[in-house]
Amino acid sequence: MTPVTTLAGESLVQSVDWLTIAPPTLTAVVALVVLVADLFLPEERKGILGWTAIGGLVAALALLLPLRAGDRSTFCLTPDTQIRACSYTADHFTLVIQLLVLGGALLTALLSITETREKLPAGEFWFLLLSSAAGAALLPASRDLATLVIALEVASLPAFALVGLKRGDRRSGEAALKFFLSSVTATAVTLLGVSFVYAATGTLHLTELAQRLDDVPGQLQTLAEAGVALTLVGFAFKTAAVPFHFWVPDTYVGAPLPVAAYLSVVGKAVGFTGLILVTVVAFPSYADVWGPALAALAALTMTVGNVAALRQVSTRAWSAVRLLAWSSVAQAGYLLVPIAAAAYSSDDQVGATVAYALMYAVVNLGAFAVVALVARTHPLNRLADYRGLYATRPAAALALGFFLLNLAGLPPGIIGLFAKVTVFSAAVDAGLGWLAVVMAVNVVIALYYYLRWTALLFRTPEAAPGTAPEAAPETGMEKVPHRAPVPITLAIALTAVAGAVLSGYPQFALRFAANSLF
After folding, report:
1. How far apart are CA 348 and CA 516, in angstroms?
2. 8-state DSSP, 286
3. What are φ and ψ of residue 482, in 5° steps?
4. Which residue, among 212, 192, 188, has the nearest Cα to 200 in the 3D structure?
5. Residue whose C-alpha is closest to residue 385's, from 394, 353, 376, 51
6. Terminal CA-CA length for the chain
7. pTM of the model
8. CB atoms < 10 A from the CB of 35, how many?
9. Cα 318 to the chain's mean position, in Å?
10. How confident is residue 333, by pLDDT bands cut at 50, 70 and 90?
11. Which of 145, 318, 381, 400 is deepest in the core (most CB within 10 A)?
12. What CA–CA distance (Å, rounded) separates 326 from 198?
């Protein structure tokens, strides 16, 4: 049969490589299986859903292995692979980000097993988590703006519901509403930008956009520039870059802790992946528009995040979660630096962002895992509640201290130090000396609150007034800790081992990231 073609000679019958799209497809299929199974399983057997979700995520990760060559594409308009006018590409960049988001979703699932048994509706939770993970896995493979925006929304819409899943909790409902309204506004602005870009170029494929934006007619130049700027807004929101960060603290506090961990890692990976694709791949000819904007956002984001984290009061309710929330804002500023540097340098700078994102994902999920463990006995989750953690939970205290030192960039967290040096070098190599200075100042500011929290772990627990020293203190750790759930223990162990391996061999992460470039 003769294929139907357009006037330009492009075939409308697109080929589908099912192995290429297998990781996000399998995740979505397991989500539907969980949703249907939830209708028939009795309440006492709902735990099967969680392990089914975990099995599906492990299988999706395994499906990345046959794609490791990084040379597959599908949904292509033309058979000519040199043009690469494809909507889905499984290159090395795609595989690294899919490994990050699916691995992050897997660790989130481990943290959530106990939550779904005790507090959260199991069927809804697992369906929403897997649906969001499927969208997050689709996004790095997207090579046209339509697929990119759809993947962004598939990753985001279930996240709104996950945040508000604590039924009867006013903070959870408010956090979900704030997250939803601000995200919808950012998405609307992004869609307006995409429509401007399409009107100026007549295409949505990223590689074709890069070519056609070089030859935009003079009368459409302003329209194209406005479209480029507006398209970045939605992705800047997902990264929690200032001034699009205001949803972060309240959302993290109101959401279930595993969901907050998921947003801090997978949500950020989605935003930064989208930024990299639209700037470096689609809009390189407009680097003079997005380069200075991202550099300014990076400086502002890391400064606001670190100053706000510095101001957290240790006795305030949920201060530990708020500190991690503001810390994630500051870390977003560091992640923005190499993307901004790509506008000023012909060298590939994106690898620094990928390397930093890998480090951040491991240690931040580990920190949230320990916070989830402490929250079981101290639901207010104050920083003061961590005083003397080493006396009762030495392994958890050592793990949390290791994660915090990684985030600070101090030994023995060697991978954190290497990641920060790599980002710093990217700014210097691109001639952004002022941004490197701002980053250095912010790293020093961050040292204070990370080290303050770390020091609390090893201090003597305070006894409540009128009690004996051996009695269980009101503000410190309990004398006899409750047994840690196995899934949370496993999540802490996996992240600690991964962080230790990367710290012992940091070149692995850096080389892995460097090989992930387009």
Report:
1. 11
2. G
3. -70, 155
4. 212
5. 376
6. 35
7. 0.90
8. 17
9. 21
10. very high
11. 400
12. 36
